[in-house]
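Record type: monomer structure entry
Structure origin: computed from sequence
Chain ID: A
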Amino acid sequence: MAEFDDQVNAFLKQVKRLVPNQETKRQMTRAGAQVLSKGLAEDTRSKHYDANHQVPKRLRGRVKHLADSVDYTDTTLDGLVDGTSTVGFKGTQTTGVNHGRIARFLNDGTKKMHGDHFVEHSREDHANTMFHKMADVYHKSVKEGK
């Protein structure tokens, strides 16, 4: 019976080594968030950038374009560090305009405007790249024995 216990304990030790800890999860999701953030900014610029659009003088220098306000953080929306990362648009404190609200209208549409769902399409388009970046970080941590 002791042999079976030793085998089970050895198996559990191997499996525990494969389960990522919180810091590894944080690094993995940060790598994926970087890919999505860059891709979302590119997609936003290609679909919603208007070079002829003039910003009012009172807002020049403060207001950024929607594509320039894409950001990511390796915490939750509440600032908790639990291994998740968040990608979104900056708010009024940093850009002068609530870009998240504007992005929602462009993405989902309104009563008078059809949405183009550019956020969902960007997530789908960059999913493989995000997965591979996250997998690279995971495999690197497994090789190091974290």
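Annotation 1: Residues 20-144 form one domain.
Annotation 2: The first strand starts at residue 70 and ends at 73.
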